[in-house]
């Protein structure tokens, strides 16, 4: 017998040996197919990704770059797994091993599917924020919301995976019983603050860095967290306020003040000459408009008080800076005081003014009357 034929017969017998329900030949075929697929996919990946990167580098949009990154991180690896799993399925396994393989395939599929969904959500949101040219603080806040969404996606994915593996969700939920209800009640406040955080983000009553006034407290927002917001009061203390309380309260956003209206009253004495009373409005107008950033809206005699004549003055400052407002108001007060002193106009104060006569003059008057 020829040596080659003999060797062929021995090799054929060896490959036909059955190990774990499969011949060695079948194992060799599966291994060869897996190696061939790995080589082909590696070459295709290199060629395709290199070409696509050249195309995406010429575009201004970052969306195509992100899509290509997603394909490299999630789609291509899962494609490797799916093809190799299909190749391995050619082999005959025991029921136990077959079950293990199916469970592993389901877990891996769920893992890549959930990761891809989360990546797509994050990518879509970030691209939307960039398109709207949102500041970094808003992007940072949004990342917290995206994190919460990712957690929910993982929870839903795990529940669906559990259902797919043959476990009934209703049985699991029922098994939680009173403990699950207790946990839900304990998390009620946390969930409320979380939804309030989402309301603050989308409604934007204030942002980090804004000066706000809420519940008789004025300060600068330092941080907007998932449960609480940190506010640095003007007196220096850091206030930790639950987001739910902020949403329920009336918030004054001082930073967004476009112009500041300043209203005050002047009280002058009743014995002020009429000519000076009529010219007082022009006097106040010249004083107010002389200041920078100010414009007088009105100055009128509005009331006959018990002890004084009352003027109502309103002017606007075209700058929201609080310190500037204080400086301007102080200058206006000093100017009014100087102008009143020069023109002999007296301020009226609470109380009554009495005109006293000398006793001798009073006696003479009585004598003349008699």
Describe this structure in words.
The termini are far apart. Helices cover 62% and strands 16% of the residues. Strand 1 (18-19) and strand 2 (22-23) form a beta hairpin. The longest helix has 37 residues, at 95-131. The protein is elongated. It has helices at residues 3-15, 24-56, 63-88, 95-131, 136-164, 169-186, 188-203, 243-248, 274-290, 322-343, 359-369; strands spanning 18-19, 22-23, 211-214, 217-224, 228-233, 238-242, 251-253, 260-268, 294-304, 309-317. Residues 364-370 have low confidence and may be disordered. With 370 residues, the chain is of the alpha+beta class. Helix 2 runs antiparallel to helix 3, helix 3 (63-88) packs antiparallel against helix 4 (95-131) and helix 4 (95-131) packs antiparallel against helix 5. The protein folds into 3 domains: 15-167; 189-253, SH3 type barrels, CATH 2.30.30; 260-343, 2-Layer Sandwich (Alpha-Beta Plaits), CATH 3.30.70.100. The chain is built from 11 helices and 10 strands.
Distance between the amino and carboxyl termini: 173 Å
Q: Spatial order of the strands in the main sheet? A: 6-5-4-3-7
Poorly predicted regions are: 364-370
Radius of gyration: 41 Å
Reading the helices and strands in chain order gives HEEHHHHHHEEEEHEEHEEHH
Largest sheet: 5 strands, antiparallel
How much helical structure, as a percent, in the residues? 55-70%
* Count of alpha and pi helical runs: 11
In total, how many beta strands? 10
Mean pLDDT: 81
Beta-strand portion reads 15-25%
Structural class: alpha+beta
Shape: elongated
Count of the domains: 3
């Amino acid at each position: 017998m020829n040596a080659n034929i003999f060797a062929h017969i021995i090799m054929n017998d060896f490959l036909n040996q059955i190990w774990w329900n499969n011949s060695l030949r079948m194992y060799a075929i599966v291994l060869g197919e897996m190696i061939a697929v790995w080589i082909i996919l590696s070459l295709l990946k290199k060629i395709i990704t290199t070409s696509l990167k050249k195309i995406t580098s010429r575009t201004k949009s970052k969306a195509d770059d992100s899509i290509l990154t997603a394909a490299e991180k999630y789609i291509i690896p899962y494609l490797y797994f799916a093809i190799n799993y299909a190749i391995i399925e050619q082999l005959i396994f025991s029921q136990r091993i077959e079950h293990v393989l199916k469970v592993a395939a389901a877990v891996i599929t769920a893992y890549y599917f959930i990761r891809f969904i989360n990546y797509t959500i994050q990518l879509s949101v970030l691209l939307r924020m960039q398109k709207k040219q949102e500041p970094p603080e808003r992007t940072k806040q949004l990342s917290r919301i995206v994190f919460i969404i990712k957690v929910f996606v993982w929870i839903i994915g795990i529940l669906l995976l559990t259902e797919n593996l043959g476990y009934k969700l209703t049985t699991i939920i029922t098994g939680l019983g009173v403990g699950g209800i207790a946990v839900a009640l304990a998390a009620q406040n946390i969930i409320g603050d979380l939804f309030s955080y989402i309301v603050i983000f989308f409604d934007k009553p204030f942002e980090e860095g804004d000066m706000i006034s809420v519940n008789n407290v004025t300060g600068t927002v330092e941080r907007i967290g998932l449960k609480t917001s940190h506010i640095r009061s003007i007196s220096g203390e850091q206030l930790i306020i639950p987001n739910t309380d902020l949403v329920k309260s009336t918030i004054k956003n001082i930073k967004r003040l476009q112009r500041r209206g300043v209203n005050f009253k002047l009280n002058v004495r009743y014995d002020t000459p009429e000519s000076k009373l009529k010219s007082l409005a022009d006097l106040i107008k010249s004083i107010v408009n002389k200041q920078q950033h100010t414009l007088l809206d009105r100055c009128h005699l509005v009331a006959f008080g018990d002890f004084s004549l009352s003027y109502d003055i309103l002017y606007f400052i075209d700058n929201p800076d609080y310190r500037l407002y204080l400086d301007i108001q102080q200058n206006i007060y000093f100017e009014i005081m100087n102008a009143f002193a020069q023109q002999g106009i007296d301020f009226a104060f609470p109380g009554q003014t009495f005109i006293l006569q000398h006793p001798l003059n009073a006696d003479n008057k009585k004598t003349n009357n008699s």
